[in-house]
Amino acid sequence: MYEHTFRRVELSAFNKKPKEDYQQIVFDFEKEGWELVQIFAPALRVTARLLILN
Prior knowledge:
Elements: E1 4-10, H1 22-31, E2 35-40, E3 47-53
């Protein structure tokens, strides 16, 4: 059985740039022992999602 976690990164309303540094989020999860499996960013949506699997 695998453990999963999801992280949503909000985008600014004006320029649609992430409000958080997604690279730093990945580094922080790696420090906790997680492995990045997929980044999903739907087109023209307000949020992007990180899928992190152990």
